[in-house]
Amino acid sequence: MPHITRLEQERRAAGLSQAALAFAARLAQPTVSKIEQFKLRAPSYQVLEKLARALRRHGREVTAGELDPTTPAVVPRKPRPRKTEGKPNGIEPQGVLT
User: Fold this and answer.
1) How many angstroms separate the Cα of 91 from the Cα of each of 7, 80, 81, 86, 94?
2) Against a cut of 0.70, is the pTM above it?
3) For the domain bounded by 3-72, which CATH number is listed?
4) Contact, 48 vs 68, CB < 8 A?
5) 30-54 pLDDT, tens per residue?
6) Domain ranges of the chain
C-alpha cells in the first residue's frame, strides 16, 4: 500500500507546491522535499510548527505533531478482489470420487 507523509497529503489538499509551502513557512524547498520523501526522519518541532502554521493559513487544520513523518498517512486505494484458495471460481467441490 503506498504511503505518503501527512505533510504531503495536507500540502496537496491546500493546492500548494513544495516551493510555495516552503516560502510560506520560511524554509528551504529541499527541507520540505526531504521530509516528504522520508529522508529527514526527525525534523525539529520548530520546523514542523512553521509548516503547520503555513498550512493553516491555507485553510488546513493541522498541528505540528500531526506532521511528524514517523506516522505516514495512508493513501486509500481501491480494494483488490479476493482470491479463493484451491477453489476454481470460488465453487466448492460437491463430492469426492473414491
Assistant:
1) 46, 19, 16, 9, 9
2) no
3) 1.10.260.40
4) yes
5) 999 998 888 887 888 899 899 999 9
6) 3-72
